[in-house]
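ok so i was messing around last nite and threw this chain in just to see what happens. nothing serious, just curious
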Amino acid sequence: MAIESWFFLSTMAFALSMDAFSMSLAVAMKRKIPVNKMCTALVVGLFHMGMPFLGLISGTWIAASFEQTAMMAAGVLLFVIGLQMIVSSWKKDAEQESMILPVGLGVFIFSFFVSLDSFSIGITLGILKAELFSVLLLFGLFSGIFTWLGLTLGKYMQQSLGRYGEMIGGIILLSFGLKLAL
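result:
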């Protein structure tokens, strides 16, 4: 089954970007250290392109090898990632105090952590035979924009918005997972 729906991919990119957005909001609200917003947004965007690229390659191989089982596994994977995002959106503030700042080499570590779920989604999209260029373009664009927005708006917004943003992203992925698995 080939996925060429820009709406589906845009919704998926939006959901994945909520993690980067909420972490960027948290960084901007809690820290007084200046962060290069454009550099951080660019690196996060690149990581959100690289991780799903690796996942897509893996997922394409899995799909070719185990067609029907791969579809169900893709649904379960999306469901679990969505559930994890919802649960992590309710973590206590003390647990978020140990966050990595996107300053210096921390930009790469921060980008890696907020884009880890993109690898798993990339596997799923590879199984579903999504178009590589569309996935990478949308994932990179959405995550870069939402990272920049989070860093820019963070000092003006309350922390609860970041939690709800991540929760919304989790609900979207959870819904796609249920649809694929059933």
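not much to say yet. The CA atoms of residues 1 and 128 lie 6 Å apart.
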